[in-house]
C-alpha cells in the first residue's frame, strides 16, 4: 500500500493506492466524521463491490444509492436521485458520501456532496482506471448540460481517495484502454521518462499485471496531485491536464454522450493536439507518430469520427470552458513531456488540423 | 451612500447602501472582471428596474434572464433556465451574474454562479427588504427540494452587494413587513439597543421613510456581516441568525412554498422560540410579550397555522439542516439581544411549546 498526499492546505487529502483495499474499513474510518454514510454507485459496480464495501463499514448507518450506468445519465435528473435518497433517509450535514464507481459516479457524487445542505464530506473509491488516475483526484465535480459537458459543477475536494487496483480485474478491456489515454497524457504533458516506461509496459498494463498497474496509477496520481496542488481552480497550469480534451469533448458532445468513451475521444483529441503541435514546429513528424503508436498500442482509436466536419468541431469547441472572452485556448505540446496552453495560433492552422486526414497518418505508421 | 465590508479574507466584499444607486453603473464596474454580464431577475422586478440597470452597464455584453416570481419556482427546473440562457449566449468563465430581485432571485443566481462552469462571479442587487438585510449578505445560496427548503445549494460569496433602498418604494406592504421580521431578529439575537430603536421607528419604517430604512438596513447588514465574518460556514455563531427559522421552515414546507412569506413564517417561529426561551426561564412573560408586540407592530402574523399539529412541526423539523446526528438544535434567546444554539432541552418542553395557544398569548397583549 502506498499513500500520496494532495497538498491543498486545510483541504489536503491522501490518495491510498494498493490491491484488495475495498474490504479494509479501517482505511476509511479516519475520514468519516459522523455516523451516517451514503454509498453512491451504479448498476454495474453494485453487484461486484457494493456488498464488500458495506460490510467494511460496520457500525455506521449506511444507505446505498444505485444509479444507472453511463455518461448518458450524468444529468440533473439522476443527481436528484442522490438528494432524494439522502433526504428520505434524513441524512444530515455530518453525513459522508462515498463514490464507488467510475468517473460518472465520482463526478456526480462529488457534486451532490458539494450541494447537499450546502456541502457535506465525501470519499472517492474509484473502480475504473480512468477515474483512478484522473477524475477522482483534484476535486472537479459536476454534471452535463444538453449544451455542453461538465457545464454545471463545483470544485470540491474529497476527504480521501481509496484506489483498489484489484477492481480493475473486472473492468472491460475497452474501458481499461480508455483509462490508459489519461495515463499516457501525464507522460506527454510533464513526464518524458514515464513515456519511455509506458512504451515498455503497455502490454503488461493491458494484461492487468498488478505491479505495472499500481506503478502506472501511482505515477499518474503523483503528476495530477502536483498539478492540482499548484493550481487548484485551473487558472493556469492545471489546464494542461486537458491535453486532447477540447477536441475530445467536441467528439463526445457531437456523437452523443456514451457512444465514444471519454478516454477514446481524448485519444483522438490527443493526436489532433499532437498534429497541431507538429504544424507549429514544436513536435517532429516522428514524435507525432510516436504519440499515435503509443495510443494505438493502448488499444485506443486515434482517428476522429468520419462524419464530423471542421465546422462541427469549431461549434462545439466554442462553448468549451477554456474559452475566455471569445478566445479558444488549446493545450498543446512544446515537446514530448512538456505542455503549454495557448490561444496564439493562426485560425487557418486550426482549420488545417481539423481537416487533416488522420487515417492517412495512421496508415503510414 | 455608506459602505460596509464583509471581512472574509480573499473573499471579502463590500455592501454599498444608499438611495437611487441602481442607475450608477460606476458602482458596479470595479466588480465585473470580464465583458459578459447576465442579469437574472423575475417577472415582477423586470418591468420596474431591469432597463435602468441595463442602461447603467453600457460597454458590456449584457443578457437578461427573467424567471417567474415566487418561492414556488425556486427549484431545479427554473435554475436550469439560468444555465440555458448562459450557454445559449456562450457565456464563459469570466462572465458576471447579477441578481436583481428578492431572496429567491438572489439564492438562485448565487447558486447558478457557484455551479456554472464550476464557479463564476456574481453581484447581489437586492430589491426587497428581506434580501437587503439578510439573504444577499453571507453567501448562502441554493434551491428547494420537495422534501426540504434550501436543501441543495452552496456557500458562495458575491463580489459585491449593492443595496438601493429606493427600490423599497415599490415593494408591497406585506413584503416590507416580511423583511422587518429579519430586521427585528438582529435586535433580538445581538443588539438590544437596536430593539429599542425599532420600537420607536417601526411606524417610520412601515411608512417607507428613507432615513429610517437606510438606518435599519445598515444596522442589520452590519450585524450580519459581523456574524458571517466570524463563522462563514455556520459551524457555530452563524446558526443564531436562524432564530425562528427552524419553526418557520416547518410552516413554509407544510403550507407549501409561497403561501406564507418567509418573513411571516419566521415571525410566527420567532414567537415560538421566545415562548420556548420563556419556558426555559430565560425570558420573562413580559419580554416574550414584547417580542410579540413588536412583530405585530411590524404587520406580521405571530400565530402558527391552526391546521398544523405538533407532529407536523416535529416531522418537518427532523430534516432541518440544524439536525446533527439526530439531535435537533434550536436557536433560542438567553436574554433580549442574546441568542444561543442548544439541543439541551427536555423533549416534553418542545412538545408543550408546539402545543401552546399562541392566539391566547396575542389576545392578552
From TrEMBL, chains A, B:
Zn(2+) binds at residues 182, 245, 262. Residues 179-323 form the 3-dehydroquinate synthase C-terminal domain. Its main location: cytoplasm. Keywords: Amino-acid biosynthesis, Aromatic amino acid biosynthesis, Cobalt, Cytoplasm, Lyase, Metal-binding, NAD, Nucleotide-binding, Zinc. NAD(+) binds at residues 69-74, 103-107, 127-128, 140, 149, 167-170. It catalyses: 7-phospho-2-dehydro-3-deoxy-D-arabino-heptonate = 3-dehydroquinate + phosphate. It is found in: Cytoplasm. InterPro entries: Dehydroquinate_synthase, DHQ_synth_AroB, DHQ_synth_fam, DHQS/DOIS_N, DHQS_C. Pathway: Metabolic intermediate biosynthesis; chorismate biosynthesis; chorismate from D-erythrose 4-phosphate and phosphoenolpyruvate: step 2/7. Binds 1 divalent metal cation per subunit. Can use either Co(2+) or Zn(2+). Its EC number is 4.2.3.4. Its cofactor is NAD(+); Co(2+); Zn(2+). Residues 65-177 form the 3-dehydroquinate synthase N-terminal domain. Belongs to the sugar phosphate cyclases superfamily. Dehydroquinate synthase family. Catalyzes the conversion of 3-deoxy-D-arabino-heptulosonate 7-phosphate (DAHP) to dehydroquinate (DHQ). This is 3-dehydroquinate synthase. It comes from Pseudomonas fluvialis. The gene is aroB.
